[in-house]
Design brief:
Elements: E1 3-7, E2 10-12, E3 17-25, E4 31-37, E5 44-50, E6 55-57, E7 65-70, E8 75-81, E9 89-96, E10 105-106, E11 110-114
Parallel strand pairs: 2-11
Antiparallel strand pairs: 1-3, 3-8, 4-5, 4-9, 5-6, 7-8, 9-10, 9-11
Length: 115
């Protein structure tokens, strides 16, 4: 039974920091990602990471957000430094078996509100 459970969201001050976590269970995937869903906007990919540790970021978050994974704990993280109002949204983690293809497993999300 695969589960992805996010935590760590809440209110954040612009210019501060917040760390999101996603605990994965039931399977170890090749690629994990963080997506953001803002009200009235399309869901967008923020960052993703492969099993070899290689990571990719959306241009809007480069230099401010860092994705990482603790393989021993099978937990995905998103460190948000100097967040701004545009980072506000529901953050969902997702996983897929291969580096290609669609994400097939999703968490329920954790809300981040930056003010």
């Amino acid at each position: 039974h695969v589960q992805l459970v996010e935590s760590g969201g809440g209110s954040a001050l612009a210019g501060g920091s917040v760390r999101l976590s996603c605990a994965a269970s039931g399977y170890t995937f090749n690629t994990y990602s963080w997506f953001r869903q803002a009200p009235g906007k399309e869901r967008v990919g923020v960052a993703d990471i492969d099993s070899d540790g290689s990571a990719r970021y959306a241009d809007s978050v480069k230099g401010r957000l860092t994705i990482s994974k603790d393989n021993a704990e099978n937990t995905l993280y998103l460190q948000m430094n100097s967040p701004n109002a545009e980072d506000t949204g529901m953050y969902l983690c997702a996983a897929k078996l291969h580096s290609y293809g669609e994400y097939t497993y999703w968490g329920q999300g954790t809300q981040v509100t930056v003010s």
